[in-house]
Amino acid sequence: MLQRIFITALFLCSGGFLWAQTTGKHSLTLNFDDLYSTHSDHFPGATIEISRILSDKIDWSIATGFAYTPTHPDNGWEIQRLLLMPTYLSQYLKLTRQQHVYLFLHLSEGITILNYNRADAPGQSFYHVREAGFYGYAGAGLVINSKNRVAGKVDAGLKSYKLSFNDLDINPHGVAVSLGLSYRLSK
Predict the structure, then answer these.
(1) How many domains does the chain have?
(2) Which domain range does residue 43 map to?
């Protein structure tokens, strides 16, 4: 089931890329991300997103990616090989109108597939866990456009790979930073 969701998300992104090449006002962005979790560990990763400009103030995008950490302390369990695969929609609200540099607010919501190995206590054997949860992000950033269809982006905010009210869930969350390089697919 979870593999089907992820494959569908990849299909949507690839279809979005082909659609974006023909309709204009689109960009393709590769982001390098790092989440510093509330458990004091890092989740480096990458995302690819396809954006569409809706107006001078609003863009939206669909994205998919991954984040990984070899170990993650959570709830007294031993967690190894924690792989997070989010697929989400983003909304960007441009706060300034300068053509080459602008500030923005960024909101994202979607689904994350989590895969990891877990031992319930030190010394016990590990077993594989696969689950899904709601993804959420809120942040702000800066875009610097060049004259040749390329832009750089930096973004910082609060991210949760699995929004949950259950304190026993594996729900990586914390402060996230993203550096991105964007290419406008049409003039």
Answers:
(1) 1
(2) 2-184
Which of 183, 142, 139 minimizes the C-alpha distance to 160?
139
Q: Work out the number of other CB atoms within 10 angstroms of the CB of residue 56.
A: 9
User: Which two tokens mark 169?
Assistant: 């869930």
Encoded tokens for 42: 């890092």
CATH number of the domain bearing residue 113: 2.40.160.20
**pTM exceeds 0.90, yes or no:** no
Pairing of strands 58-74, 42-53: antiparallel
What is the tens place of the pLDDT at every residue in 171-186? 788 899 999 999 988 7
Residues 6+ apart with CB under 8 A from 157: 106, 137, 138, 139, 140, 141, 175, 176
